[in-house]
Amino acid sequence: MKWINWLVAIVAVSVLAVSCEQTNKDSGTTTPKPAKVEISPSKPDQISANGGSIKINLTANRDWKVTGVPQWLTVSPDSGASSLYKQEIVITAEENKGGVREAVLKFTAEDASKEVKISQGHSFGAGAPENAIFYEALEANMGSFTLNEVEVPQGLSAVWQHTTQYKCMKATAYFNNTNYASESWLISPEIDLAGYADAYFTFEHAGQYFGDITQEATVWISKDGGEWTQLLIDPDDYPASWTFMSAGEWDLSAYIGSKVKFGFKYSSTANKAGTWEVNKVAVIAGKSSRAPLEDVDPAKTQWMELPATDNSSYSYFSHRFKMDDKVYRNYSFAWSQKDLVSVWVAYPLSKPYLQKNVDRQDTWAYDPHLGKELSSAPFSYYADDYARGHQLPSADRLCCKEANSQTFYGTNIAPQLNEHNEGIWSNLENYVRTKVAAVSDTTYVVTGCVVEGSQEFTTDSDKKTMTVPVAFYKALLRYQKGGDPEWAAAGFYTEHKNYGSAKNDLKAISMSIDELETLTGHDFFVNLEGKIGKEAAASIEATDPSTVSIFNLK
Fold first, then answer.
1. CA 74, CA 131: separation in Å to the nearest integer?
2. Residue pLDDT, tens place only, 417-436
3. Which fold has domain 132-285?
């Protein structure tokens, strides 16, 4: 019988050799087949929070191994020889005492590989979302949350307190029929987002009796123990009754790989002390089904570059981009659908934005906020040879491809005479970038155009009618910590014409912010007063920039 066993072995080896080779009919030579690895099922079932095992099958025509195995998983075997036949692999998870866990295992055979996502359920119980990374119902007690009582009215032990009756955490500084000033934070434990591909944050709340609930009931996030950043709540998602409702969903892609905390900040005054109730706080693995709020309200965002946004004739939007795993705001704009241009585009300039890591992208596109029907189409020169003039210059956003590509949206483009665009306007853009922003911590810029009174029109690439501006302008607010002065402002206003030999005379088109506001009808830098006080802000906006040495307008 031995010779039969040997024959079987020889045949198996021969078949395997043939499987790894293929014959070239023209030359008669044999060449190796490409490396290949297959996994089934490609989407294994989730492992229970109690622990346990699942099985997958692997086929590989080269020796293989697995990588990306976290400490809570074991894979057996974790390597093997090539084979025509399926190899069974057992993946075992230990008991999970926290949120849903994910791992991406990579099975590699030479230059071929397949990835398989393994997940394990959470231990939060039946009431928690299926893919919860973190969950506190706050129905029985305050769970793992802590309090930071910044200002507590005398006679009140805490502003945030648990209520068994309503099964939530409740904040109020109204008691004894009196409103009291207060500030109190309900703070989550640290939540580790390492190992997840995507995640989002959500909670439910109820409440009434606020003065301005958007300012008095806010939610914040801290990354790796750093400063708090506000997460904007859509005004439509604020409660107006005691019925609990979702506060929205916040994409946490910018925080993946970090440890985060969430803070619920309640504040009140002696005139108004509302009641805020919060429960069902969750961080969930996966992508949110809701689009993020693109809010450009200066009172909510506190972005220093924003003008007032109180004109109902315009629509307000903002764009963000991701660079080095951090989300940056790119620019905000006030869109005039009637004129098919943005009357202003506001943006910050600082070291991260001014890096030159990529080339100009020239990715002309409709603005995704508006779509093809509402956005202007900037795919070629406008009628009568008007240039496609950037408001936020492409050269101010060469830090990454996404940031630069967004400058080519139709909403950032306005029709300009070539002589103006390549003349005084180009000189002004270079001046702002190289002479002001490059020597400042941050320069906040509003670039815009004046369409009121225009009798000139053109058409875009889709033959939609656009108003040709009668003038263009820039408003600058420059900050340099410890500078003399720390804050300074300058305005520039150009008529839409060929300046000829005067294209280099930037002093002639400079003016105070007050003068620029009179010419344009916009209220610039509305958050400056809150930063440095009313009198100081008024003085800065009234100053002639040619008298401020740092602007170097001679």
1. 22
2. 999 999 999 999 999 999 99
3. Jelly Rolls (2.60.120)
Place of tokens 């912010």: 513
Which regions of 340-470 does DSSP assign to beta strands (E)?
341-350, 387-390, 413-416, 442-450, 457-459, 465-467
From first CA to last CA, the distance across the chain in angstroms is 104
132-179 per-position pLDDT tens digit? 999 999 999 999 999 999 999 998 999 999 999 999 999 999 999 999
Q: How many Å apart are CA 295 and CA 234, to the nearest integer? A: 8
What is the C-alpha separation between 327 and 256, in angstroms, rounded? 12
Amino acid 410: pLDDT: 96
Task: Write the CATH number of the domain with boundaries 298-551.
Answer: 3.40.570.10
Quick count: other Cβ atoms within 10 Å of Cβ 121? Answer: 19
Q: Characterize the bridge pairing of strands 217-223 and 228-231.
A: antiparallel
Q: Which helix (H) or strand (E) holds 13?
A: helix 2-19
C-alpha angle with apex 91: 86 to 93, nearest 5 degrees? Answer: 170
E runs forming strands in 306-459:
315-323, 326-336, 341-350, 387-390, 413-416, 442-450, 457-459
Cross-strand pairs, 221? 229, 262
CATH code matching the domain that covers 37-120, chosen among 2.60.40.10, 3.40.50.150, 3.30.450.20, 1.25.40.10: 2.60.40.10
